[in-house]
Amino acid sequence: MENRDSRRFSTFDLMILVAAAAVGLWLKRHSAPYLWPGGPKYGPESPVYVAWEGALELSPFLIPLAPTLVVLHLRRPRPSLRRLSIRPGFAACLAATVGLGVGALMQALREVVALMTRTGAIAKLPSPPFMTWPAGTLDVPEPMGATTNCLSRIILVPIESGHAPAIATAVIATWAMLAVGGRWRPRPTWLDRVGRLIGLAWLAVASTLLASVVVGEYLM
User: Which residues contact 126 (CB under 8 A, 6 or more apart)?
Assistant: First the structure.
């Protein structure tokens, strides 16, 4: 009988991961130039700027991996959902996926509001209280305006706008609850190990972004 706790890596798993990488490449292709939030002292050649930019460059590839690993964890054969929920790899990917979903929903709402405050909108929000933005106005509150792809903005803008620390916090909180409750059950399987690596990667990205912004904005 096949051990459900140690499903072997299959060709289908590889295909799913390749598809996730393709999504990451698509997101990277449609990402706009990043706006450095730090001061002028730290230019493009400074280590602080390079670290900040590197973390943002990694984000488009990291974003699709969390939901992909959730799907792969749920593939059969697998342990019961109760046992799966205490695996730190699955828990980290699920927490990151929920965080990504919340950020995407918030940005999607912002996109809808921005669309409904444009001159000539089919369904227009009342003004006042909402402001009306003429078509083509450069000051429209729309991050990453250099890309015209709405879907890429919905996915990427929350990360550039500081949502990565919220995702990392969700991962930390999930792991802390497992550890404090005595339910931390890591397994020596490729799925759990990759899931833990993704959780650690989100922690690294969020820490790098926060540290870079703090150094760039507040240190002399």
Answer: none
- DSSP state string for 30-86: TPPPP---S-TTS-TTSHHHHHHHHHHHHHHHHTTHHHHHHHHHHSSS---HHHHTT
Which residues are CB-contacts of 164 (< 8 A; sequence separation ≥ 6)? 55, 59, 202, 205, 206, 209
24: nearest Cα among 66, 75, 77, 52: 66
d(CA 135, CA 5): 56
Cα 115–116–118 angle (5° rounding)?
A: 70
35: pLDDT strictly greater than 70:
no
Are 11 and 75 spatial neighbours (Cβ–Cβ below 8 Å)? no
* Cα separation, 58 vs 171, whole angstroms: 18
Q: Coil, helix or strand for 129? A: coil
With bands split at pLDDT 50, 70 and 90, how would you rate the model's confidence at 119?
Answer: low
Indicate the SS3 state at residue 124: coil
Which residue matches tokens 């299959």?
A: 10
Q: What is the pTM of this model?
A: 0.78
Mean pLDDT score across all residues of the chain: 79
pLDDT (tens digit per residue) in 36-64: 666 666 677 778 888 888 888 888 899 99
Distance from chain centroid for Cα 56: 10
Structure token digits, residue 22: 């393709």
